[in-house]
Amino acid sequence: MTSRRSERLSRIPPYLFVEIDRRKRAAIAAGRDVIDFGIGDPDRPTPSFVVDAMAEAIRSPSNHRYASTVGSAAFREAVAGYMRRRFGVTVDPECEVIALLGSKEGIGHLPTAVVDPGEIVLVPDPGYPVYTSGAVFAEARCHIMPLTEANGWLPRLGDLPGDVRRDATLMYINYPNNPTSACAPLEFYADAVAFAREHGILVAHDAAYGDLYFDAPPPSILQIEGAAEVAIEFHSLSKTFNMTGWRVAFAVGNADALAALASVKSNLDSGVFQATQHAACVALGRYDDPAVRSSIAFYRARRDQLITGLRSAGWRVDPPAATFYVWAKCPSEYDSMTAAKKILDDADAVVIPGVGFGAGGEGFVRFALTVDEERTKQAMERIATIRW
Ligand SMILES: *Cc1c(COP(=O)(O)O)cnc(C)c1O
Q1: What is the CATH number of domain 7-45+293-384?
Q2: Judging by beta carbons within 10 Å of its beta carbon (0-12, 13-18, 19+), is residue 287 exposed, middle or buried?
Q3: N or C: which end of the chain has fewer CB within 10 A?
């Protein structure tokens, strides 16, 4: 028996969370009391009205059969209703909406659907690692768009060289942003749409954190006139409704791109469990319900505690306006890996080194606000004792 591994797998950058996870487990095995600000997975439960809808739907035999790849008519209607009420955006539920098994799945499969080998995929750096892996699986070339603090963590589209503009067919953007927590103003989306139109590029906007905000609600790229001609947008129930384990999300926008994505999916998966789709419809209908928004109050309290703690420990850090991440500059010019190891070794706290999101994340670490207030306070007290 030979063990085979494709060459393309070796071209995927190492998934850094794995390395951090290994060190975390070693610390726990050694009996240390580890406080984990690592992977962004909500610690609060799914709202009970969503769980109740699921409990009922799972008893219906009609839900036990194969689902439609693109999602049920009811699901696509619920998405269209959400887009209309939340963003004032009209999408056609027939052809401008598809269901996904989590947005990671759609993001990862998109290049296979719309990019030919050798074409360029524009990926933000630092950024969510799946943009790169999906492009690698499709044998595309990745071109990095640096995100910098000086530019508000927005890519400078005007800086992209002529040959890159010529060969690029897909661009990923993501706001509110993971890992930097930056938000993009509406003008940025207008620029992205104009750029895409000029150069024949499809824009894929990842809006996984679109409903996880503390101040002004972040916009949709589809609010830009004509955006659906050149853009699709990924939304997910995972972070908004504490539903990461359920695997349900959707993409909206350009009908041709979504049809291509549906073709790939119909060869690989057979849609989202119909009971889950039903529960998702109920969730989307109540996205602004107090039971949903209450998670924001928890994140806000933790955010404020964490920012106060880090600042009094001498860190230079600003409170994020959205997402459940705090993106903090490492003290004393430390590189991010050394800083993360030091925080684990000296304070028994897990943070993600920025370099895990690409070279552009160097010098920063990411804290996820998925630790309760009491434990966050405790971690900040420990971090304050570190000698940098
Ligand atoms: C969490 C996350 C997602 C994916 O979430 P799903 O659970 O797959 O819907 C997508 N993009 C970013 C930037 C994320 O942080």
Answers
A1: 3.90.1150.10
A2: middle
A3: N
CA of 369 to the centre of ligand 1 (A): 15
**DSSP secondary structure, 257-286, as one string:** HHHHHHHHHHHH---S-HHHHHHHHHHHHT
d(CA 220, CA 149): 23
- Choosing from 109, 128, 130, 241 the residue with most ligand 1 atoms within 8 A of its CB, the one to mutate for a pocket test is 128
What residue spans in the chain does CATH classification 3.40.640.10 cover?
A: 48-285
Q: Is the pTM higher than 0.90?
A: yes
- Mutating to test ligand 1, I would choose from 104, 180, 369 the residue with most ligand atoms within 8 A of its C-beta, which is 104
Q: How high is the mean pLDDT in each 10-residue block of the chain (388 residues)?
A: 83 77 92 94 97 98 96 98 98 98 98 98 97 96 97 97 97 98 98 98 98 97 98 98 98 98 96 98 97 95 97 95 98 94 95 95 97 96 96
Domain 48-285: CATH architecture, name and number where available: 3-Layer(aba) Sandwich (3.40)
Which residues are paired to 36 by β-bridges? 350
